[in-house]
Amino acid sequence: MLKLTPVERSALRAEAHALKPVVMIGEAGLTDSVKKEISSSLDSHGLIKVRVFGDDREARVEMYNTICTELDAAPIQQIGKLLVLYRPKVEVVKERSSKAGKGMREVTIVKASASGTKRPSVTKVMIKGNERVTEGGTIKRAKPRQTSPKKSALGK
Q: Which of 142, 1, 155 is nearest to 67 (CA)?
């Protein structure tokens, strides 16, 4: 179970005030799938609220303690049927797909027919980082950067 100072817990309690419950625990109780969902929510959000449906107070307290110990989360607050949990976010590094080469991206171009009565033409095109697609669906390259004649004369 993660330990927090009272000041940190108070700050997280204030931050959690505006949150809506992300996970709901139904009459089936704390199942493996519910634990997995709570864990993924903690990984993505860090601070979450969990709503427990059920009138047994002791069972809610037991669920709260079980969640905190098994998922290594910090108990922040329990108000009635709402449980507030905290675990630091997991930073995930997203890798870019290397299938398209460096600086290339796939763009779908939809051009309306000239008469307006036929289907639009849809094409998928690979464009470079310095290219853009206009509203008409044509690809434009970025113009080369302008250089100052004075700087080129000075050798810079």
A: 1
Mean pLDDT computed over 6-13: 93
> How confident is residue 6, by pLDDT bands cut at 50, 70 and 90?
very high
Report helix, strand or coil for 149: helix
Q: What's the whole-model pTM score?
A: 0.59
Residue 27's nearest CA partner among 54, 50, 51, 63 is: 54
pLDDT of residue 36: 94
What are the residue boundaries of the structural domains of the chain, listed by start?
A: 6-86, 100-142
Residues 11 and 84: their CA atoms lie apart, in Å, by: 13
Other residues' Cβ atoms within 10 Å of the Cβ of residue 73: 23
CA-CA-CA-CA torsion sign (127, 107, 138, 141): negative
Q: Look at the domain 6-86 and name its fold.
A: Translation Initiation Factor IF3 (3.30.110)
Return the sign of the alpha-carbon dihedral for residues 41, 47, 53, 56.
positive
pLDDT at 90 over 60: yes
> Residue 107 CB: number of other CB atoms within 10 A?
14
